[in-house]
Fold:
Amino acid sequence: MAYSRRDFLRLSGLASASLLLPNFLKAAGNSIRLSDTNGKIFIVVQLSGGNDGLNTLVPFGDDLYYSNRPGLGLKGKELLKIDSHFGFNAKLKGLNDLLQAGDLAMLNSVGYPNPNRSHFRSLDIWQSGSNAEEVWQTGWLGRYLDACCAGGLTKPHQAIEVDDALGLALKGNLMRGLAMRDPNRLVMDALPQEIAQAYTKHDDDHHQVEYLHKTLAETNQSAGYIHAHVGKVKAKSVYPSQPFGQQLKLIAELILSGSETAVYYVSLPGFDTHVLQHGQQGRLLKLYGDAMAAFAKDLKNVGRWNDTLVMTFSEFGRRVKQNASKGTDHGTANVLMLAGGNLRRKGVLNEAPDLKNLDQGDLIHRVDFRQVYATILQNWLGTDPEAVLGKKFGLMDFI
Structure:
């Protein structure tokens, strides 16, 4: 049976829309084969909405913090003091436990030149690794997959975003990761009749249909692989019952079960705190910190924590001065956190945000986020960062 281009597009649409297909198939493309990472695992946690870094890692030793935030400034029991200048938001007890164990590093004032205050645009910049003036169609981890791709066995499950759809970060020119939220939907019981026909019968002259056939075959194989590993070993720690906690639990169980997945991406939404920030951010930070503590405990119990690096970022921080609604508005530079059992440096890695010298009320970045990426690419993932990021960035010494 021969298929025209119109047939291919129609079948592709059916494949994307069908409820009988697991959601992660919508974003699946070619298969991948990563270079040898010596069993190392990299996890990205995205705090979506623009987390307020100044009320996460709090520079309570600076009087300007309180003069700019007379109602939002944290003090007393609202703080877990790290030293004479910094303290964690008290809701981050789980993260503070990681710090005390020597498993956490924090970088202040991370951002990029000419910052953009749009959620969507700034997130694209962070996920792609582009300059603020450029729009790239691929993500930094997707290009990492491109750089590592080689012939041999197909392993599409080696990079997973725990979500319904694949974001820009894991999309490369040749390779891309898989989006997967619910492992129980990974194995297909049936396909729509027309897609099944294209899956089993196609004209070799129609390369687009062949591509669809190949994609369905590879992702179906990967679905079986992931499904076989989920639940093979159960996590023993108690995770928060909210979706983010259960998503980190899923990642932990895949790691504990010996999955070949080397890169994971997960998001925690809700940080756009223009109004009544204190309660909303506190609930989210507690969820994040408690889930991270449970995750680290599970991996430590089986000796995998030293092989794991977790990077937590948000698309931008908030303005230094609180607004009239007991919240904060979109800002620029922010705190970035790194967790794992193999950090070379721990604790607060650089100076406090400069609250005196601001750019129209916003923090001025001192660390380009691509320096962090370049360091992770070279020192953790074993890849040439310049080939992935398109230019050379200075390396850091946290790993």
